Structures are given as structure tokens and as C-alpha cells.
Amino acid sequence: MFGLSELAIILVVVAAVLAVKKLPELTRSAGKSARILKSEARAARDADEPGTPRVIPGETVGREDTGTGNDTGTGTGPRG
């Protein structure tokens, strides 16, 4: 009969054979999780240092594009 160590080896081999199709997806998922965890840890560490500005990647908005949303968008100045 099989001992505990032989049974464990057989189970590992069977799991590896059955998981070959899912292995790339699992490693991709593990990589994503690690990146998310790393960025969250960095954000928590940066929250402790309030003097440093946060840079968020995205599109740049010019000064003429900013406002309260009450303007007509014509750029003629305040409404009277």
C-alpha cells in the first residue's frame, strides 16, 4: 500500500497535470495581486508623508478648461 509521502507526491503530480492549462492565468492573477498590494502599501506609506505631492497619471487640463461648470464654455469671461 502507499504511504503518506507517496500519496502526497501522486496528488502533486496529478494537480500539476490538471492545472497546466490554468497555470498562465494563475501566474498572471498572482502578478496583478502583487502589483496591487505593492501600490496600496506605497499609497499607505505616502499618506503618512503629507508634504509630498501625489502625481496621478492621466490627461492634463489647462487653466482655461478648469472651472465650476457654470460657464457657457465660450471663454468670454464671467456671465453678467
Automatic annotation (TrEMBL):
It comes from the Bacteria. It is found in: Membrane. Keywords: Membrane, Protein transport, Translocation, Transmembrane, Transmembrane helix, Transport. Gene3D superfamilies: 1.20.5.3310. It is a single-pass membrane protein. It comes from Streptomyces anthocyanicus. Residues 70-80 have a biased composition (Gly residues). Residues 37-48 have a biased composition (Basic and acidic residues). Residues 31-80 are annotated as: Disordered. This is Twin-arginine translocase TatA/TatE family subunit. Pfam families: TatA_B_E (PF02416).
